[in-house]
Request: fold
Amino acid sequence: MTTVLHEFLVDVPRATAIWSALLLLALTTLTVLAARPEPDRPVPEPPPADETTDLRRYAEEVAVAAAGAAQTARRRRDAWLAAQEEADRAWQAYDEAEGDARRLAAAAPLPRPRTPRTPAEYAYRERWLHHAAVAAHWRGDLTAEQLRDVFGHRGGWDPRLHPVDQEIALTRAVRDGKLAAYRAAAARERASWRDAEVAAEAARALSAEAYAAAERLRPAVSTRSRPVTVGRRAVEVRWRPARAS
Reply:
């Protein structure tokens, strides 16, 4: 656990600067006191050993917690970025489906080619609708439930309509499905962003507390003349907001 604390101290530039300043101030003070002793001035008592141990234990625990919070914040940010990409893809798919539906809607007022209303013609129209619906389902444009409605002639699906009208209805169904998928992806992106912001704020707070705990420990360790070694980085202090403003 002591190694974790030491690793936390080494890579924090501000902590290093304060540590150097404290050492310089302590050496200067000792030099002045040696040159001009003041017997009447009381010498501060070192903190008890139990208090130093408690300070060290707390500093180590909060350093470990800060490191864990930093990892959590990175994972939450990565998850938000993935959710954002998913929402962007969903919007692009909806935009394309909306364009297709809009183009076909422009042809809706045009007269339909005359065809004989025979059982063979209606059978052909039904086959066309089923084939187009299955192809849309395999592309991911229609859900399995929508495909069942097509074959069951439910939800407004009429196999007797002209293929042009059936294609218009199919593109509208695809567009509505893409819109619903985009709204769901956008909701997930917003929730993921909130989670990333909460995790980043927790990481910032724990990092600041870990730094403060290390600062409280240093005078106690210096008074008892305990050496402090440092190593690699344990905690990242600075955190950018998860979402750019």
